[in-house]
Amino acid sequence: MTIPFTNKFDPAGEKPFQVLQPAQQRVPFVFNSPHSGRHYPDTFVDAARLTRHQLRASEDVLVDKLFDSVVEIGAPLLAARFPRAWLDVNREPFELDPRLFGEQLPAHANIRSMRVSGGFGTIPRLVAENLPIYREPPTLDTALARIAGVYRPYHDTLRHLIAATSVNFGHAVLVDCHSMPSNGNRYNDRGRADIIVGDRYGTSCHGEISREIMHRFGELGYTVTRNKPYAGGFITEHYGRPLKGLHAVQIEINRSIYMDEETLQPNAGFNSLAADIREVMTHLVSLPDHEFAAASIAAE
Question: Residue 14: what pLDDT?
């Protein structure tokens, strides 16, 4: 797919994201990995007070690789190359943090969202456990350039993939792919489930989609919960319109299953998890979908 914008992300000319596509899309599914980008621009690292390794604490390490088998089963996969710490496309376009910028923010900026309050806006101020990113904060012009040059083209591409899928199949299902730390934050240090399925409390997709994902992972021996503590972010909420035949579901994977959370290297569980994801997704795309085109939101 040709990406319709002039790239400002990488002086070497690399695209800030990629679309992996089958020769022919055979299923009404689109997969998205917005936080697995691992190309850290030198200018960003130079401006940070953190090491490159510390900056990766916000990265969904190798999630795009865990899900890349979906291309073989007939679905496209959109994957970021840029890091989440540099730009978070799972936010509104202008969730901007006034504590990060020394300039007057535009009137349309959302400065009061819970995500901004936590330091995790469109241009994040923090990574992980409240670690400030910047030694030299970006200018507002720099932030707006990231939004115009990468955020908007990313969402234009995602929107195009969903729209084309809906036209070709009569409906579309977006699966938003993420990973999470094995433990909660300092306010909740309990261990987390292996898999969390987020559907905005039943509003972003047909209930059968969430239930089948949970059931299949459960059959494979994983502990699975729904919506807590992750119900889905901006992407799930924004693109999920079940009454219009547009469904969006988020999958969060416990990082300890497939990687060492200290070294950020894959562990012995990576290949088996990737195989299980392929099995679950193969089942998911084969579901009878006559209800999905004009789905009613099931009472949960």
Answer: 74
